[in-house]
UniProtKB/TrEMBL annotation, chain A:
<comment type="similarity">
    <text>Belongs to the phosphatidylethanolamine-binding protein family. Mitochondrion-specific ribosomal protein mL38 subfamily.</text>
</comment>
<dbReference type="InterPro" id="IPR035810">
    <property type="entry name" value="PEBP_euk"/>
</dbReference>
<dbReference type="Pfam" id="PF01161">
    <property type="entry name" value="PBP"/>
</dbReference>
<comment type="function">
    <text>Component of the mitochondrial ribosome (mitoribosome), a dedicated translation machinery responsible for the synthesis of mitochondrial genome-encoded proteins, including at least some of the essential transmembrane subunits of the mitochondrial respiratory chain. The mitoribosomes are attached to the mitochondrial inner membrane and translation products are cotranslationally integrated into the membrane.</text>
</comment>
<dbReference type="GO" id="GO:0005840">
    <property type="term" value="C:ribosome"/>
</dbReference>
<dbReference type="GO" id="GO:0005739">
    <property type="term" value="C:mitochondrion"/>
</dbReference>
<feature type="region of interest" description="Disordered">
    <location>
        <begin position="41"/>
        <end position="61"/>
    </location>
</feature>
<keyword id="KW-0687">Ribonucleoprotein</keyword>
<keyword id="KW-0689">Ribosomal protein</keyword>
From TrEMBL, chain B:
<dbReference type="InterPro" id="IPR042831">
    <property type="entry name" value="Ribosomal_mL40_fung"/>
</dbReference>
<dbReference type="InterPro" id="IPR019192">
    <property type="entry name" value="Ribosomal_mL40"/>
</dbReference>
<dbReference type="GO" id="GO:0005840">
    <property type="term" value="C:ribosome"/>
</dbReference>
<dbReference type="GO" id="GO:1990904">
    <property type="term" value="C:ribonucleoprotein complex"/>
</dbReference>
<keyword id="KW-0687">Ribonucleoprotein</keyword>
<dbReference type="Pfam" id="PF09812">
    <property type="entry name" value="MRP-L28"/>
</dbReference>
<keyword id="KW-0689">Ribosomal protein</keyword>
<dbReference type="GO" id="GO:0005739">
    <property type="term" value="C:mitochondrion"/>
</dbReference>
<comment type="similarity">
    <text>Belongs to the mitochondrion-specific ribosomal protein mL40 family.</text>
</comment>
């Protein structure tokens, strides 16, 4: 411990010497920074000053092992390394945007000026859109022209909103910390970019390599980030899930990157149910729910908690795989309902009663759905599968499927004259 | 065992030369020399005896000695490894979180500034071109001579044949001369 403080000491001395002179001028100059988180932090620090530090240690500042242990016992883990905390104890805690580095401050000035300009452009663009909307259709040159112009202007406005904030270091920092506010377009944009960089690629690769895409649906372009959890553990796309784990319905985390709320249909399809009679495979619908509202801020969907009298058409059926059958692909599809209009639940419920051989393509055509998200997990015969099958009333639990043995052709010498 | 210098050790590591062999080599040679000396004193040495002794002199790796040169790997990979793990290669640049954010801020500002500059230059060029275009149009329609002046001015004949551009009249330099225009200059008198 002592060496930590000793190590931080020269730094602290240097900071203490340089800051008191530098700070007041800076604070005057930064009247309106990008964001005002710093002030909130100062207030929070000023509050607990009434108690001595060893009574109520601050998890961001505590550096002695005894106090740390006490904090951990209280259930609060200290923030950062001990060295960092020791250094922070006597630092003036200058907010990031006021750090006294000349080049940095000049750069901030450039960025702020650009942001002002962008904000002005946003305002003028909004006015332009309002003006165009007020113009009657005949003067604007027809319905089509007006509509396309309005759409183009809206797109440009969205773009401007992103451009205004994309150069803000604090936005970047917040997003990297996972504290981004998804109701703001900039964070949605950043999240979308990050998702497309890696996780979407993996998802698309899995659902195309495992042939979910031509088997279950002809085409799917995922635009929402879908995460699947059984209990608390996340499932990668295409992962094998233990049958005991998958007896309870999973939770979904559907991150929408667009503004507004959407009503979606969620379907879980098993596309590998072995059919012995026809020597092939069938489909089975393991779950179907309609009219599920999702938006950029409310992302969590618990499939077992959806209301059974207005949303769940077919409740969760635990996926099973007969012994000896190849693995089953359980694909989860998030389908957008047309114009975000609710489907008539009673009619859907009356119509969709059977699970077996229910094709998602049919549903898609019948209810005008559009797949916007997908996920995939697999299940195969494992040690707990027999119990799960018994609990769910499957017959022939102890039957094992075997591949038909292909009889080898009888040996025949080809062209025996050359062998002589 | 003699320890190698760090430079040699790291290079040996890069090229997968076992250090134990290289470091013990001097002692091996010494031993071999001694045996050779003994043998020369005892009697004439036949080539058959010398052959196994000579093998221990070889600095070639056993794998490399084989026909085909052994697994050499990709030459480019070897070179990359050489320079990447060379002890004189500086360590990678590492920033703390806030330092990186500051660096990023400055970088973004610089990119933004450059983009703004490019855009303003582009706009200026566009403005100039359009002004020239408007002037020519005015000359064509507004001069009242049926466009004769305009046609004359658009005529490019003989530009490069009879006279050449004024810019090529003197040697091109990066900057104007120190004293600007030399007004006292006179053409030399012919004698």
């Amino acid at each position: 411990m002592a060496h930590c403080e000793r190590a931080a000491k020269p730094l602290l001395q240097c900071l203490q010497k340089s800051y008191p002179r530098a700070l007041p001028t800076l604070q005057v100059q930064s009247t309106r920074a990008f964001q005002t988180t710093a002030f909130a932090r100062e207030e929070a620090q000023a509050e607990p000053k009434s108690q001595p530090f060893h009574k109520a240690p601050d998890p961001a500042l505590v550096s002695s092992p005894r106090l740390e242990r006490r904090l951990i016992r209280q259930g609060v883990s200290p923030i950062g390394s001990r060295r960092r905390r020791a250094a922070l104890q006597s630092s003036p805690n200058v907010p990031f945007e006021q750090l006294p580095y000349q080049c940095f401050q000049e750069a901030r000035k450039v960025l702020l000026a650009d942001r002002e300009e962008k904000l002005k452009e946003i305002v003028s663009m909004r006015e332009k859109i309002a003006r165009l909307q007020a113009v009657p259709t005949e003067e604007a040159g027809g319905e089509q022209v007006k509509k396309s112009r309005l759409v183009a202007m809206e797109l440009h406005l969205e773009r401007l909103k992103i451009l205004a904030d994309i150069n803000d270091p604090l936005v970047k920092k917040k997003f990297e910390d996972g504290q981004g506010d998804m109701s703001k377009p900039i964070y949605r944009y950043l999240a979308d970019r990050k998702w497309r960089e890696y996780r979407r690629k993996i998802l698309v690769q899995r659902i195309t390599q495992m042939k979910v895409i031509p088997d279950v649906l002809p085409h799917c372009d995922p635009v929402v980030d879908t995460k699947l959890y059984f209990g608390r553990s996340p499932v990668q796309p295409g992962e094998f899930v233990n049958s005991r784990v998958s007896t309870s319905a999973p939770k979904l985390d559907v991150q929408l990157f667009d503004r507004g709320e959407k009503l979606v249909t969620i379907a879980v399809v098993d596309s590998d149910v072995p059919n012995v009679e026809k020597d092939g495979f069938d489909y089975r619908m393991h779950y179907l729910a309609v009219n599920v509202p999702i938006s950029a801020v409310s992302t969590k969907v618990d499939l077992s908690k959806l209301s059974s009298d207005s949303q769940v058409v077919l409740p969760w059926l635990p996926p099973v795989a007969q012994k000896g059958s190849p693995y089953h692909r359980l694909s989860v599809f998030i389908m957008e309902q047309k114009d975000s209009k609710p489907l008539d639940f009673a009619a859907v419920k009356a119509k969709e009663t059977t699970r077996d051989n229910k094709l998602l393509r049919t549903l898609q055509a019948r209810y005008h759905l559009k797949a916007i998200g997908a996920h995939l997990f697999r299940t195969e015969w494992d040690s707990t599968m027999a119990e799960v099958m018994k609990e769910n009333g499957y017959a022939e639990v102890d039957m094992e499927l075997r591949r038909k043995r292909v009889e080898p052709l009888p040996y025949k010498r080809r062209n025996p004259s050359t062998f002589r | 065992m003699r320890s190698l210098s760090p430079v040699l050790a790291s290079l040996a590591n890069v090229f997968k030369i076992p250090i134990s062999q290289t470091s013990t080599r001097p002692s091996v040679t010494r031993v071999c020399n001694e045996t050779l000396l003994k043998k020369s004193t005892s009697g004439p040495v036949t080539s058959a005896v010398q052959a196994p002794a000579a093998r221990s002199f070889s600095t070639t790796n056993a794998l490399l000695k084989r026909k085909g040169g052994g697994p050499r790997g990709d030459r480019r990979v070897t070179l990359i490894r050489y320079f990447l793990h060379h002890p004189k290669t500086p360590r990678p640049l590492r920033f703390s979180r806030t330092r990186y954010l500051r660096h990023w801020t400055i970088h973004r500002a610089w990119q933004l500034f450059q983009a703004q500059q490019r855009r303003s230059e582009q706009l200026e060029l566009q403005r100039q071109w359009q002004a020239m275009n408007a002037a020519c149009e005015e000359l064509r329609t507004g001069a009242g001579d049926g466009g004769k002046l305009f046609r004359k001015s658009m005529n490019k004949r003989g530009v490069f044949r009879d006279l050449f551009p004024i810019e090529y009249g003197r040697l091109q330099t990066e900057a104007p001369s120190q004293e600007g225009w030399n007004h006292e200059w006179k053409r030399m008198e012919k004698k």
